């Protein structure tokens, strides 16, 4: 399976995905930590992929999405953005509804 297929399979299998450095319990960068904290505050399930544990995804995902940095947050297979966007959506009170809608649609 090629990298594009692997990424698509993850996105198709999980309606809410955060590609991050580390894990929510052990984030390896501040941006990933803040994005995971915003998602945790929603109280809804989400899937994470530790790009530090998978160097192929870490190298390929920025080319796939045309988004150069991590974390990368996806809803229903669509790239929403990185840390700043996730935090802003949370602060505006929109993130929980967006995550809930993606989970319902799955």
Q: Can you offer a commentary on this structure?
A:
With 106 residues, this protein is an alpha+beta fold. The chain has a single domain, classed as Glutaredoxin. The protein is 52% helix and 16% strand. It has helices at residues 3-13, 30-42, 55-65, 83-91, 95-105, and strands spanning 16-20, 47-50, 72-75, 78-81. Strands 2-1-3-4 form a 4-stranded mixed beta sheet. Helix 2 links the parallel strand 1 (16-20) and strand 2 (47-50). The chain is globular and about 35 Å long. The mean pLDDT is 96.
Task: Write the SSE topology.
Elements: H1 3-13, E1 16-20, H2 30-42, E2 47-50, H3 55-65, E3 72-75, E4 78-81, H4 83-91, H5 95-105
Parallel strand pairs: 1-2
Antiparallel strand pairs: 1-3, 3-4
Helix pairs in contact: 2-4
Task: Label this structure with key terms.
106 residues; alpha+beta; Glutaredoxin; four-stranded mixed beta sheet; 5 helices
The side-by-side strand order for the widest beta sheet comes to 2-1-3-4
Number of strands: 4
Q: Helix-strand pattern, N to C?
A: HEHEHEEHH
Number of domains: 1
Q: Approximately what portion of the residues adopt beta-strand conformation?
A: 15-25%
Mean pLDDT: 96
CATH class: Alpha Beta
- Overall spatial form: globular
Q: Mind summarizing the main beta sheet?
A: 4 strands, mixed
Can you identify the CATH superfamily?
A: Glutaredoxin
Structural class: alpha+beta
């Amino acid at each position: 399976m090629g990298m594009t297929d692997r990424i698509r399979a993850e996105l198709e299998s999980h309606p809410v995905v955060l590609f991050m450095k580390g894990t929510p319990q052990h984030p390896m960068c501040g941006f990933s930590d803040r994005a995971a904290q915003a998602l945790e505050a929603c109280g809804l399930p989400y899937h994470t992929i530790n790009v530090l544990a998978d160097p192929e995804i870490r190298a390929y995902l920025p080319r796939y999405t045309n988004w150069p940095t991590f974390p990368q947050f996806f809803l229903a297979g669509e790239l929403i953005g990185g840390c700043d966007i996730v935090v802003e959506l949370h602060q505006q009170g929109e993130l929980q509804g967006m995550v809930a809608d993606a989970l319902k649609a799955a």
